[in-house]
Amino acid sequence: MPEGDTIFKTAAALRPLLVGRTVLAARARQPGPQIARVIGAEVTAIEPLGKHMVIHFSNGLALHTHLRMKGTWHRYAPGERWRMPAWQARVVLEVPDHVVVCFNAPVAELMPDRAIPLHPGMKSLGPDLLAQNFNTAEAFNRLRARPTMDIAEALLDQRALAGIGNVFKSEIMFIEGVNPWTKVSAVDDPTLQAILETAERLLKQNVRPNSPARITTRTEGSRVWVYGRAGHPHRGQPRLGLQPRRPPLLTLPHRHPIPQTGRAQPLDVLVPHLPARQMSYFVYIVASRSRVLYTGVTNDLERRVFEHKTKLTPGFTSKYNVDRLVYYEDTDDIVAAIAREKQLKSWLRSRKIALIEATNPSWSDLSEARLP
Q1: Is 2 a catalytic residue?
Q2: What is the pLDDT of residues 82-129, one digit of tens each?
Q3: Options 51, 169, 309, 352, the catalytic residue
Q4: In a domain, 367, yes or no
Q5: Mean pLDDT of the chain
Q6: Which of 3, 153, 200, 341 is catalytic?
Q7: Contact at 8 Å (CB) between 238 and 230?
Q8: Other CB atoms within 10 Å distance of the CB of residue 29
Q9: Rounded distance, CA 325 to CA 293, Å?
């Protein structure tokens, strides 16, 4: 999922293309925003708000988007062939010399400017880490107001502070040497303050002009310390001038092996996140909020979860809103994956629940960061 730095840089890239220009044409996939209402208006501002982005128009309307897992913005010249299929285009804005397309964004809403501060997804946002004057004290107090939450989960709660996703959460926990499952109440004040300082520093370092792809280390040949590195050698201590306040915990991967056949790949449980793309086949369980279960197999877990969440495929999961990833295993052996799927499907519900709760007792959605 795009994190705050990605949205910030996306907004910065779109400004020279759109701001001050008149919208010549606009269309959106339906059902969706009545974006044709902005034709003839001028784009006045583009505002990143944590993981949200708002495009303001001179006629008093605003386009709010949230990219979630699969959304992305593209820029094309008029008549240029798109790199993604047209049916995935959620919103298209045409201005002189440029065509800007938002693909696959689950959230795209057109509303009056005055409604932005009242929007339930934005009015509850915590202090934005990328704001020029990040309110550290307010973020500190909002985290303290969540004493029973794991610190890693609290950092993902956009109502506490806005902008952190799974990558930065993982890196911050490692740099500060904090067990991600430590309750907020058990984190002392100096450590919590250091976590916020590191979070602000990492995000702001990654939105500097001409900054490279997201990076949290100064290690040659590497961009991150721990995220997505399950099964790789430990990198040792951070080299960012911040030594861990205690020995790093939980840096070794656990495994969810697919039994009997196939080689199990390690599953990094330092923090919940979707696995690296080199893993080939996944057996997974998704659940509804009322804990209706579905077991499936796929070679692209991100895409499959996206399909469940957006109800692209009619059937059981779309009918019963079964779209929360609560468990998965991985292997590079398709035969083992299919056999394991059949095995899990044959299990009694109670046994599936025990399997889920052994590693995910809170039934957290492992596919995305917490959103307001």
Answers
A1: yes
A2: 988 999 999 999 999 999 999 988 889 999 988 888 887 777 888 988
A3: 51
A4: no
A5: 79
A6: 3
A7: no
A8: 18
A9: 10
Q: Please tell me whether residues 243 and 147 are part of one structural domain.
A: yes
Is position 203 within any domain? yes
Q: Which domain holds residue 270?
A: 254-359
Give the Cα separation of 209 and 192 in Å (integer). Answer: 29
Domain-ending residue, one of 123, 145, 177: 123
Whether 286 contacts 322, CB under 8 Å: yes
Which of 190, 121, 108, 103 lies closest to 162, judged by CA? 121
Q: Is 197 a catalytic residue?
A: no
Per-residue pLDDT band at 189 (split at 50, 70, 90): very high
Q: What is the pTM of this model?
A: 0.54
d(CA 48, CA 132): 12
Query: Both 194 and 295 in a single domain?
Result: no
Q: CB neighbours (10 Å) of residue 351?
A: 11
CB neighbour list of residue 91: distance below 8 Å, 6 or more residues apart: 26, 27, 28, 29, 32, 33, 35, 63, 65, 101, 102, 105, 108
Shared domain for 221 and 114, answered yes or no, is no
Same domain, 41 and 103: yes
Is 51 a residue of the active site?
yes
CB 361 within 8 A of CB 326: no
